[in-house]
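#lab-general

N.A. 3:47 PM
ok so I finally got the sequence cleaned up, no stray characters, all 411 residues accounted for. can someone with queue access submit it? mine expired

B.Y. 3:52 PM
send it over

N.A. 3:53 PM
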Amino acid sequence: MKIQNVDLMYLKKKYGTPLYIYDEKHIKDNMDGFLKYFHSSKFKTEILYASKAFSVKEIYRIAKEKGMNLDCVSLGELYTAKSVDFDFSKIYFHGNNKSYEEIEYAVKNGIGIIVVDNLMELELLDSICAKLNKTQEIIIRVNVGVSAHTHKFIVTAHVDSKFGVLYGSDDYKKMIEICNNSKFVKFKGFHSHIGSQIFDLEAFRAALVKLITYAKDYKEKLILNIGGGFGVHYTNEDSPIPFNKVSEILIKTCEEELAKENIEIEKLAIEPGRSIVAEAGYTLYTIGFTKKTPNKEYYFIDGGMTDNIRPALYQAKYDCDIVGKENEPRNHKVTIAGKCCESGDLIIEDYNLPEAKTGDLLITYTTGAYGYSMSSNYNKALTPAVVFVEDGKDKLVSRRQTLDELIEREI
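B.Y. 4:20 PM
back already:
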Protein backbone atom coordinates (compact mmCIF):
# COMPACT_ATOMS: atom_id res chain seq x y z
CA MET A 1 0.00 0.00 0.00
CA LYS A 2 1.16 3.51 -0.81
CA ILE A 3 0.12 7.04 0.15
CA GLN A 4 1.12 9.72 -2.37
CA ASN A 5 3.20 7.01 -4.03
CA VAL A 6 5.23 6.44 -0.85
CA ASP A 7 5.35 2.82 0.33
CA LEU A 8 4.15 2.19 3.88
CA MET A 9 6.73 -0.51 4.59
CA TYR A 10 9.43 1.97 3.61
CA LEU A 11 7.98 4.50 6.07
CA LYS A 12 7.85 1.85 8.81
CA LYS A 13 11.53 0.98 8.30
CA LYS A 14 12.60 4.62 8.17
CA TYR A 15 10.52 6.11 10.99
CA GLY A 16 9.22 3.19 13.04
CA THR A 17 5.71 2.74 14.39
CA PRO A 18 3.37 4.04 15.65
CA LEU A 19 3.65 6.69 12.96
CA TYR A 20 1.43 9.61 12.03
CA ILE A 21 1.32 10.02 8.24
CA TYR A 22 -0.19 13.02 6.44
CA ASP A 23 -1.02 13.37 2.77
CA GLU A 24 0.29 16.90 2.24
CA LYS A 25 -1.45 17.34 -1.10
CA HIS A 26 -4.77 16.44 0.51
CA ILE A 27 -4.24 19.14 3.15
CA LYS A 28 -3.36 21.76 0.55
CA ASP A 29 -6.33 20.80 -1.63
CA ASN A 30 -8.70 21.16 1.32
CA MET A 31 -7.31 24.58 2.18
CA ASP A 32 -7.57 25.64 -1.46
CA GLY A 33 -11.16 24.44 -1.56
CA PHE A 34 -12.29 26.55 1.37
CA LEU A 35 -10.37 29.56 0.06
CA LYS A 36 -11.97 29.18 -3.36
CA TYR A 37 -15.59 28.60 -2.38
CA PHE A 38 -16.02 30.58 0.83
CA HIS A 39 -16.27 33.92 -0.90
CA SER A 40 -18.85 36.69 -1.30
CA SER A 41 -19.13 39.91 -3.27
CA LYS A 42 -21.22 41.42 -0.44
CA PHE A 43 -18.71 41.20 2.41
CA LYS A 44 -15.18 40.09 3.23
CA THR A 45 -14.53 36.48 4.17
CA GLU A 46 -11.83 34.80 6.25
CA ILE A 47 -10.80 31.15 6.57
CA LEU A 48 -9.10 30.40 9.89
CA TYR A 49 -7.28 27.10 10.29
CA ALA A 50 -8.34 25.76 13.71
CA SER A 51 -5.01 24.89 15.30
CA LYS A 52 -6.35 22.58 17.97
CA ALA A 53 -7.06 19.88 15.38
CA PHE A 54 -3.36 19.49 14.60
CA SER A 55 -0.70 21.95 15.67
CA VAL A 56 2.86 21.68 14.35
CA LYS A 57 5.16 24.16 12.65
CA GLU A 58 4.68 22.64 9.21
CA ILE A 59 0.90 22.99 9.16
CA TYR A 60 1.30 26.66 10.14
CA ARG A 61 3.83 27.13 7.33
CA ILE A 62 1.37 25.69 4.83
CA ALA A 63 -1.50 27.84 6.15
CA LYS A 64 0.79 30.86 5.94
CA GLU A 65 1.74 30.07 2.33
CA LYS A 66 -1.92 29.69 1.42
CA GLY A 67 -2.80 33.06 2.93
CA MET A 68 -5.10 31.61 5.56
CA ASN A 69 -5.81 33.07 8.98
CA LEU A 70 -5.28 31.12 12.19
CA ASP A 71 -7.35 30.17 15.22
CA CYS A 72 -5.22 29.61 18.35
CA VAL A 73 -6.37 28.59 21.82
CA SER A 74 -3.23 28.62 23.98
CA LEU A 75 0.13 30.19 24.60
CA GLY A 76 1.73 27.09 23.11
CA GLU A 77 -0.16 27.43 19.84
CA LEU A 78 0.64 31.15 19.68
CA TYR A 79 4.31 30.45 20.35
CA THR A 80 4.41 27.77 17.66
CA ALA A 81 2.83 30.17 15.16
CA LYS A 82 5.34 32.86 16.08
CA SER A 83 8.23 30.41 15.59
CA VAL A 84 7.40 30.28 11.86
CA ASP A 85 6.80 34.05 11.64
CA PHE A 86 3.05 33.72 11.16
CA ASP A 87 1.50 37.19 10.92
CA PHE A 88 -0.10 37.73 14.35
CA SER A 89 -2.56 40.23 12.90
CA LYS A 90 -4.14 37.25 11.10
CA ILE A 91 -4.66 35.25 14.30
CA TYR A 92 -7.83 34.98 16.40
CA PHE A 93 -7.11 33.99 20.01
CA HIS A 94 -9.75 31.80 21.68
CA GLY A 95 -10.22 30.20 25.08
CA ASN A 96 -12.59 30.26 28.05
CA ASN A 97 -9.91 30.73 30.72
CA LYS A 98 -7.00 32.67 29.22
CA SER A 99 -4.26 33.43 31.71
CA TYR A 100 -2.64 36.81 32.33
CA GLU A 101 0.52 35.52 30.65
CA GLU A 102 -1.38 34.36 27.55
CA ILE A 103 -3.31 37.59 27.13
CA GLU A 104 -0.23 39.74 27.68
CA TYR A 105 1.76 37.67 25.16
CA ALA A 106 -1.00 37.95 22.58
CA VAL A 107 -1.45 41.71 22.98
CA LYS A 108 2.30 42.44 23.03
CA ASN A 109 2.76 40.50 19.81
CA GLY A 110 -0.04 42.30 17.97
CA ILE A 111 -2.74 39.65 17.93
CA GLY A 112 -5.46 40.43 15.39
CA ILE A 113 -8.62 39.50 17.27
CA ILE A 114 -9.18 38.21 20.80
CA VAL A 115 -12.35 36.16 21.11
CA VAL A 116 -13.55 37.13 24.59
CA ASP A 117 -15.43 34.34 26.32
CA ASN A 118 -16.72 35.92 29.52
CA LEU A 119 -16.97 39.06 31.63
CA MET A 120 -13.96 38.39 33.86
CA GLU A 121 -11.76 37.84 30.84
CA LEU A 122 -12.79 41.17 29.34
CA GLU A 123 -12.06 42.96 32.61
CA LEU A 124 -8.60 41.37 32.72
CA LEU A 125 -7.93 42.15 29.07
CA ASP A 126 -8.94 45.78 29.55
CA SER A 127 -6.53 46.16 32.48
CA ILE A 128 -3.67 44.51 30.57
CA CYS A 129 -4.23 46.71 27.53
CA ALA A 130 -4.28 49.79 29.76
CA LYS A 131 -0.99 48.74 31.34
CA LEU A 132 0.57 48.17 27.91
CA ASN A 133 -1.16 51.25 26.44
CA LYS A 134 -2.39 49.16 23.52
CA THR A 135 -5.78 49.02 21.82
CA GLN A 136 -7.15 45.55 21.15
CA GLU A 137 -9.96 44.48 18.84
CA ILE A 138 -12.27 41.82 20.26
CA ILE A 139 -15.28 39.78 19.30
CA ILE A 140 -17.52 38.25 21.95
CA ARG A 141 -18.29 34.55 21.96
CA VAL A 142 -22.05 34.24 22.31
CA ASN A 143 -23.91 31.06 23.12
CA VAL A 144 -26.61 30.93 20.46
CA GLY A 145 -28.38 27.94 22.03
CA VAL A 146 -28.39 25.90 18.83
CA SER A 147 -28.16 22.17 19.45
CA ALA A 148 -26.46 20.03 16.82
CA HIS A 149 -26.44 16.23 16.62
CA THR A 150 -23.07 15.38 18.13
CA HIS A 151 -21.46 13.64 21.08
CA LYS A 152 -22.42 15.23 24.40
CA PHE A 153 -18.79 15.99 25.23
CA ILE A 154 -18.27 18.05 22.07
CA VAL A 155 -21.50 20.04 22.10
CA THR A 156 -20.53 23.65 22.80
CA ALA A 157 -23.69 25.69 22.36
CA HIS A 158 -26.25 24.52 24.92
CA VAL A 159 -27.32 27.21 27.39
CA ASP A 160 -25.22 25.84 30.27
CA SER A 161 -22.06 25.40 28.22
CA LYS A 162 -18.67 26.34 29.65
CA PHE A 163 -18.20 28.49 26.54
CA GLY A 164 -19.54 31.96 25.78
CA VAL A 165 -22.21 34.25 27.18
CA LEU A 166 -25.91 34.52 26.45
CA TYR A 167 -26.82 37.49 24.29
CA GLY A 168 -28.67 40.08 26.35
CA SER A 169 -27.68 38.56 29.71
CA ASP A 170 -26.43 40.74 32.55
CA ASP A 171 -22.84 39.67 31.88
CA TYR A 172 -23.21 40.46 28.19
CA LYS A 173 -24.61 43.93 28.95
CA LYS A 174 -21.70 44.61 31.30
CA MET A 175 -19.25 43.51 28.62
CA ILE A 176 -20.73 45.89 26.06
CA GLU A 177 -20.64 48.68 28.65
CA ILE A 178 -16.93 48.03 29.26
CA CYS A 179 -16.28 48.18 25.51
CA ASN A 180 -18.21 51.42 25.18
CA ASN A 181 -16.31 53.08 28.02
CA SER A 182 -12.83 51.68 27.44
CA LYS A 183 -10.03 53.34 25.49
CA PHE A 184 -8.31 50.01 25.04
CA VAL A 185 -10.78 47.34 23.91
CA LYS A 186 -12.76 47.74 20.72
CA PHE A 187 -15.86 45.63 20.14
CA LYS A 188 -15.89 44.25 16.58
CA GLY A 189 -18.49 41.48 16.50
CA PHE A 190 -19.54 38.00 17.52
CA HIS A 191 -18.24 34.47 17.55
CA SER A 192 -20.23 31.24 17.75
CA HIS A 193 -19.23 27.58 17.71
CA ILE A 194 -22.01 25.03 18.07
CA GLY A 195 -20.05 21.78 18.26
CA SER A 196 -17.90 19.33 16.32
CA GLN A 197 -18.36 16.59 13.72
CA ILE A 198 -21.67 18.09 12.57
CA PHE A 199 -23.43 16.91 9.40
CA ASP A 200 -26.55 19.06 9.70
CA LEU A 201 -26.13 22.33 7.83
CA GLU A 202 -29.42 23.54 9.26
CA ALA A 203 -27.68 23.87 12.62
CA PHE A 204 -25.06 26.18 11.10
CA ARG A 205 -27.75 28.14 9.27
CA ALA A 206 -29.71 28.61 12.50
CA ALA A 207 -26.62 29.80 14.36
CA LEU A 208 -25.73 32.23 11.58
CA VAL A 209 -29.25 33.66 11.53
CA LYS A 210 -28.97 34.23 15.28
CA LEU A 211 -25.68 36.11 14.85
CA ILE A 212 -27.18 38.31 12.12
CA THR A 213 -30.15 39.04 14.37
CA TYR A 214 -27.72 40.18 17.08
CA ALA A 215 -25.75 42.30 14.58
CA LYS A 216 -28.95 44.13 13.69
CA ASP A 217 -28.78 45.85 17.09
CA TYR A 218 -25.55 47.66 16.17
CA LYS A 219 -24.92 50.51 13.77
CA GLU A 220 -21.37 49.58 12.84
CA LYS A 221 -20.48 46.75 10.45
CA LEU A 222 -19.52 43.75 12.55
CA ILE A 223 -17.39 40.65 12.15
CA LEU A 224 -19.38 37.43 12.40
CA ASN A 225 -17.41 34.23 13.06
CA ILE A 226 -19.52 31.09 12.76
CA GLY A 227 -16.74 28.76 14.01
CA GLY A 228 -16.14 25.29 12.64
CA GLY A 229 -17.16 21.73 13.44
CA PHE A 230 -17.84 20.52 9.90
CA GLY A 231 -18.14 16.73 9.85
CA VAL A 232 -15.73 14.36 8.09
CA HIS A 233 -15.79 10.74 6.97
CA TYR A 234 -14.54 8.28 9.61
CA THR A 235 -16.70 5.28 8.63
CA ASN A 236 -19.58 4.60 6.25
CA GLU A 237 -21.94 5.77 9.00
CA ASP A 238 -20.78 9.32 8.25
CA SER A 239 -22.09 11.52 5.44
CA PRO A 240 -19.93 14.66 5.40
CA ILE A 241 -20.98 17.69 3.39
CA PRO A 242 -18.33 18.82 0.86
CA PHE A 243 -16.65 22.13 1.71
CA ASN A 244 -17.98 23.71 -1.48
CA LYS A 245 -21.53 22.94 -0.33
CA VAL A 246 -20.82 24.13 3.22
CA SER A 247 -19.41 27.35 1.83
CA GLU A 248 -22.28 27.84 -0.61
CA ILE A 249 -24.97 27.40 2.06
CA LEU A 250 -23.30 29.65 4.63
CA ILE A 251 -22.55 32.42 2.13
CA LYS A 252 -26.03 32.24 0.61
CA THR A 253 -27.69 32.23 4.05
CA CYS A 254 -25.65 35.22 5.16
CA GLU A 255 -26.34 37.22 2.00
CA GLU A 256 -30.08 36.50 2.13
CA GLU A 257 -30.44 37.27 5.83
CA LEU A 258 -28.46 40.50 5.55
CA ALA A 259 -30.71 41.63 2.70
CA LYS A 260 -33.79 40.63 4.68
CA GLU A 261 -32.63 42.62 7.73
CA ASN A 262 -31.27 45.44 5.55
CA ILE A 263 -27.89 45.49 7.26
CA GLU A 264 -24.26 45.00 6.25
CA ILE A 265 -21.37 43.24 7.98
CA GLU A 266 -17.63 43.74 7.75
CA LYS A 267 -16.77 40.08 7.26
CA LEU A 268 -17.86 36.48 7.78
CA ALA A 269 -15.31 34.01 9.15
CA ILE A 270 -15.22 30.24 9.59
CA GLU A 271 -12.76 27.99 11.41
CA PRO A 272 -12.25 24.60 9.70
CA GLY A 273 -9.71 22.37 11.42
CA ARG A 274 -10.80 18.75 11.42
CA SER A 275 -12.28 19.15 7.94
CA ILE A 276 -8.87 20.21 6.62
CA VAL A 277 -6.59 17.62 8.24
CA ALA A 278 -8.64 14.64 9.46
CA GLU A 279 -9.04 12.67 6.24
CA ALA A 280 -5.51 13.59 5.18
CA GLY A 281 -4.11 11.73 8.19
CA TYR A 282 -3.33 8.07 8.85
CA THR A 283 -1.78 6.19 11.75
CA LEU A 284 0.45 3.21 11.05
CA TYR A 285 0.96 0.49 13.67
CA THR A 286 2.77 -2.84 13.93
CA ILE A 287 0.70 -5.79 15.10
CA GLY A 288 2.30 -7.73 17.93
CA PHE A 289 0.47 -10.52 19.69
CA THR A 290 -2.98 -11.85 18.88
CA LYS A 291 -5.33 -13.45 21.37
CA LYS A 292 -8.63 -15.31 21.49
CA THR A 293 -10.97 -15.31 24.46
CA PRO A 294 -14.27 -17.22 24.71
CA ASN A 295 -16.13 -14.34 23.04
CA LYS A 296 -13.55 -12.10 21.35
CA GLU A 297 -10.43 -12.06 19.24
CA TYR A 298 -7.79 -9.37 19.74
CA TYR A 299 -5.08 -7.93 17.55
CA PHE A 300 -2.64 -5.98 19.73
CA ILE A 301 -0.85 -2.96 18.26
CA ASP A 302 2.24 -1.05 19.39
CA GLY A 303 0.25 2.13 20.04
CA GLY A 304 -3.20 2.86 21.41
CA MET A 305 -4.88 5.51 23.51
CA THR A 306 -1.61 7.41 23.90
CA ASP A 307 -1.61 8.27 20.19
CA ASN A 308 -5.40 8.23 19.69
CA ILE A 309 -7.54 8.92 22.76
CA ARG A 310 -10.71 9.61 20.77
CA PRO A 311 -12.20 6.07 20.88
CA ALA A 312 -11.90 6.05 24.68
CA LEU A 313 -12.99 9.69 25.08
CA TYR A 314 -15.72 10.05 22.45
CA GLN A 315 -16.43 6.44 21.44
CA ALA A 316 -15.09 7.49 18.05
CA LYS A 317 -15.12 4.89 15.26
CA TYR A 318 -12.51 4.26 12.58
CA ASP A 319 -11.86 2.07 9.57
CA CYS A 320 -8.60 0.18 9.13
CA ASP A 321 -6.71 -2.32 6.97
CA ILE A 322 -3.87 -4.76 7.35
CA VAL A 323 -1.29 -3.47 4.90
CA GLY A 324 -0.85 -5.83 1.96
CA LYS A 325 -3.94 -7.85 2.89
CA GLU A 326 -6.58 -5.36 1.75
CA ASN A 327 -8.08 -7.87 -0.70
CA GLU A 328 -7.88 -10.99 1.47
CA PRO A 329 -11.03 -12.49 3.04
CA ARG A 330 -12.13 -10.58 6.13
CA ASN A 331 -13.06 -13.67 8.09
CA HIS A 332 -11.96 -12.61 11.56
CA LYS A 333 -14.11 -10.34 13.72
CA VAL A 334 -11.50 -8.67 15.90
CA THR A 335 -10.91 -5.88 18.36
CA ILE A 336 -7.83 -3.71 17.84
CA ALA A 337 -6.37 -3.09 21.28
CA GLY A 338 -3.50 -0.91 22.37
CA LYS A 339 -0.73 -1.73 24.81
CA CYS A 340 -1.70 0.62 27.64
CA CYS A 341 -2.65 -0.72 31.05
CA GLU A 342 -6.30 0.22 30.55
CA SER A 343 -9.21 -2.05 29.63
CA GLY A 344 -10.61 0.85 27.62
CA ASP A 345 -7.53 1.08 25.42
CA LEU A 346 -9.40 -0.13 22.35
CA ILE A 347 -8.97 1.59 18.99
CA ILE A 348 -11.55 -0.37 16.96
CA GLU A 349 -14.03 -3.00 18.21
CA ASP A 350 -15.68 -5.93 16.42
CA TYR A 351 -14.20 -5.22 13.01
CA ASN A 352 -13.80 -7.71 10.18
CA LEU A 353 -10.20 -8.19 9.07
CA PRO A 354 -8.05 -10.93 7.51
CA GLU A 355 -5.93 -13.16 9.70
CA ALA A 356 -3.00 -11.21 11.14
CA LYS A 357 0.50 -12.31 11.93
CA THR A 358 3.04 -10.71 14.24
CA GLY A 359 4.85 -7.97 12.34
CA ASP A 360 1.96 -7.12 10.03
CA LEU A 361 1.23 -3.41 9.62
CA LEU A 362 -2.18 -2.01 10.49
CA ILE A 363 -3.27 1.35 9.11
CA THR A 364 -6.14 3.39 10.54
CA TYR A 365 -7.80 6.07 8.44
CA THR A 366 -8.94 9.65 9.11
CA THR A 367 -6.69 10.14 12.13
CA GLY A 368 -5.33 13.54 11.08
CA ALA A 369 -7.34 15.52 13.65
CA TYR A 370 -6.96 15.26 17.42
CA GLY A 371 -4.65 12.25 17.35
CA TYR A 372 -1.27 13.94 17.61
CA SER A 373 -2.80 16.98 19.34
CA MET A 374 -4.26 14.88 22.16
CA SER A 375 -1.41 12.36 22.42
CA SER A 376 0.13 11.68 25.80
CA ASN A 377 3.03 9.99 27.56
CA TYR A 378 0.73 7.76 29.62
CA ASN A 379 2.61 4.61 30.66
CA LYS A 380 5.70 6.59 29.56
CA ALA A 381 4.84 5.99 25.92
CA LEU A 382 6.94 7.91 23.44
CA THR A 383 5.19 10.41 21.16
CA PRO A 384 5.29 9.03 17.59
CA ALA A 385 6.95 10.78 14.68
CA VAL A 386 4.92 12.79 12.18
CA VAL A 387 5.74 12.53 8.48
CA PHE A 388 4.22 14.35 5.50
CA VAL A 389 4.15 12.67 2.09
CA GLU A 390 3.59 14.22 -1.32
CA ASP A 391 4.43 13.24 -4.90
CA GLY A 392 6.55 10.23 -3.95
CA LYS A 393 8.56 12.05 -1.28
CA ASP A 394 8.47 11.88 2.52
CA LYS A 395 9.27 14.74 4.88
CA LEU A 396 9.84 14.42 8.64
CA VAL A 397 7.72 17.06 10.40
CA SER A 398 8.15 15.98 14.01
CA ARG A 399 10.65 13.34 15.05
CA ARG A 400 9.87 10.50 17.42
CA GLN A 401 10.40 11.36 21.06
CA THR A 402 13.47 9.74 22.63
CA LEU A 403 13.80 8.15 26.06
CA ASP A 404 16.11 10.97 27.16
CA GLU A 405 13.52 13.57 26.06
CA LEU A 406 10.84 11.66 27.96
CA ILE A 407 12.55 12.42 31.29
CA GLU A 408 14.52 15.56 30.48
CA ARG A 409 12.27 17.84 32.57
CA GLU A 410 12.32 15.57 35.61
CA ILE A 411 14.54 16.41 38.57
